[in-house]
Design brief:
This protein has 4 helices and no strands. With about 80 residues, the chain is mainly α. The chain has one domain. It is rod-shaped and about 75 Å long.
């Protein structure tokens, strides 16, 4: 197990101590409980990767050979 040192301003420290006391625990125990939750949460990058996989999974019956010809594209633009 590792120890860490964290510096916070006086007001944050006081408010955190009060919050710990209201929960009948120590500030150290609160931080110790928070850090595993923090690192286990899905990061923004992981969320985007998951959403991309979901969207790609919804794309069915697509092949590049199904694309329009040059003439068909220009006809659509008219």
């Amino acid at each position: 197990m590792r120890n860490i040192t964290v510096s916070v301003d006086d007001e944050t420290y006081k408010m955190a101590r009060v919050a710990a006391a209201e929960r009948d625990t120590s500030l150290s125990a609160m931080v110790k409980g928070y850090l595993p939750q923090l690192v286990s949460q899905e990061s923004e990058f992981e969320r985007l990767k998951r959403e991309e996989r979901e969207v790609r999974g919804q794309i069915v019956n697509f092949t590049a050979s199904d694309r329009l010809s040059r003439e068909e594209i220009h006809a659509r633009l008219r």
